[in-house]
Amino acid sequence: MWVDSLDRNARKIGIPRTIASLDSVLATLGKKDIQDSIVYYKFMKVLSHRDTTMRDDALAYTDSLLGLFKSARVREENAADYSKALLLKGDDLLKQKEYYLAYRNYYNGKAFLTSLGEICECARYSSRIANISFKEENYDQAIEYWEQELKELGECKGTDFQLQFIEKQGSMRNIGIAFLRLNEPDKALVYFRQASRFIDQMAARFPREQNFIRFARIVIVRNEAEAFALKGNNALAEKLIRKCLEHDPGIEWSVDVEKESRQLLTQIYIDQKAYAKAQEQLDTLRHLPGAEGDVYQTLQASVFHGQGEYQAASQLLMAHLDTEKKQALERRVESKSHVGQLLQQIQREHEQELTAEKDARESLVLKFAILISLALSVIVYLIWRNARKNIANLRAVTKLNDEITQSNIALQDTVNALEQAEIEKEEVLKIVAHDLRNPIAAMVSGSDMLFWEQVPSDEQTMIVDAIQQSGRLAFGLIGQILQSSPDREKISKNKEDLAEIVRSCIDMLTCKGKEKKQTIYYDYEEAMVLVDREKIWRVFSNLLSNAVKFSPMGSTIQVSLRKHADTMLLSIRDSGIGIPEDLKGQIFLPSNNARRIGTAGEESFGIGLSICKQIVEAHEGKIWFESVDGAGTTFFVELPVGLGETALVPAI
């Protein structure tokens, strides 16, 4: 209520004093909740629009307002305010002629409200699209969207003056104006009269807004006068125009109505060849702010021509034609946004996104189902195999009681073999599990970047949350089964751009680094090296991931790639927790004795470096490190530029 009162007085006391008063009162609130911030940024957005010197500030206030709705819970609890923020962002983008992004914002806002059943607020979006269509002279489409707005407003309940009065009567009047542009004055009059009746019915419900209501009546009368003038009923049109000119001088926007009314009255007098009366109106019109424009020149030329002053009329007409030519060139340069086509494209893209997300969910469910089925099959097989062996052993004990000692030895050997097979199977599982860690980490981190520069819908947010939850569950399963054991596979080397491989690792981990506000600097020299791209990428990714994991918040990581004679040397230096003296000898051992927790609580299993060492050595390279406990670590990887074609390396 206080902000509404300040808004009413803002034009009287000026924008700077209004902002000072707003900041002063906000400072007295102490701890502000999110609703206080929403009200503040919305009102500052309104004030910055009224002051042309604050144009850049207006864009910043929109971004600040949108920044309040980062979580799905906040968006749902403040659905109307969030939709208005999207609406304002769309308006900003539209002014910057970013038509696709603007309409995408409008569409996302409307889709969000529709998903929550907030049909009432959707009317604001229909109104925006109608206004854009009207400016593009697509009047039939504008009428369609204003009709849609009226339908949505019809479902609104409550006493919101903006929605219940301004938007409704404005939609009716706008439809009438669109019919005037289509040269259908009779249809226009139907909507003007409908708007007039609506104003009479609703006036008593808003006693504090009587100034605006009186102004709305005057505007409707002026629109009706224009319709009657288009029908050729100049007498009635003149009567209505004179009624407009008797308006209450206390109404703030009446000067604009007076200017438009006198222009229309001048045209009526010109049509009646009452040039003296027309000139009288033009003389009055000339003293109004912003009156001497293109329309004024045309009317004055018509009066001069009617009075026989052909030279003066010709000069004004030439000036008008020159202005019209320039405006035509400007309109030709500016391409229209074709709002209808863009909205259809955005809707198709939205449907495709929903289909893709549905397919991804189904694919994920199918993969998990297959994994579970395979696991169950293995378990059933093992149970069946063990059962058969137990039965066979029982029969052998029964029949060969005299050879029980030998049988026990055989059974012990069998148990030992089973245990060894189980150990080998578990080791394979650990290696596969470790291999899955980095892709899953990339999936979790990358999901945060899907909507880095735009706000996702509620369903999109749910899908992203599901991806991240699946990633965390997968990490939990990996943690339960992870152990160290090498398995060997062949690698094939090809000439690869080593600098590009390092860059791809950095790109994958940049998002993870941003979560800890870390900065990765990369200095390199280009060189083509014979390597197995996938395996050597895993080495670099593991080393860089460790640097991010064990570095503190806000730190920097230096990555350097330099050519030395016949070798390439990669160094990754961090300013993290370092490696204690008692662990330095265990870093490259295939055990988890050297594992430690990351600076943000990240879990470590201590086997990645041992596998990295085996991969590098399989490439005839070297890997080592330099570290001071608590002061950071630098890992070095040296690879020869020329190698053979194949080698053996552990799979990780």
Provide structural commentary:
- 68% of the residues lie in helices and 9% in strands.
- It is built from 24 helices and nine strands.
- Strand 7 and strand 8 form a beta hairpin.
- Helix 19 (404-447) runs antiparallel to helix 20 (458-481) and helix 19 packs across helix 21 (498-515).
- The protein is elongated.
List keywords for this structure.
single chain, 652 residues, alpha+beta, five-stranded mixed β-sheet, two-stranded antiparallel sheet, 9% strand, histidine kinase, transferase, EC 2.7.13.3, HisK_dim/P_sf, kinase
Q: Which band does the percent of strand residues land in?
A: 5-15%
Approximately how much helix is present in the residues? 55-70%
The main pleated sheet reads as: 5 strands, mixed
Number of helices: 24
Number of strands: 9
Q: Give the uncertain stretches in residue-range form.
A: 483-488, 643-652
Structural class: alpha+beta
User: Kindly state the mean pLDDT as a whole number?
Assistant: 79
| Alpha-carbon distance between the two ends | 64 Å
Which of globular, elongated, flat, extended, rod-shaped describes the shape?
A: elongated
Q: In which order are the strands of the major sheet placed? A: 3-5-6-8-7
Gyration radius over CA: 38 Å
Coiled coil: 401-431
Protein name: histidine kinase
Catalytic activity: ATP + protein L-histidine = ADP + protein N-phospho-L-histidine
Keywords: Coiled coil, Kinase, Phosphoprotein, Transferase
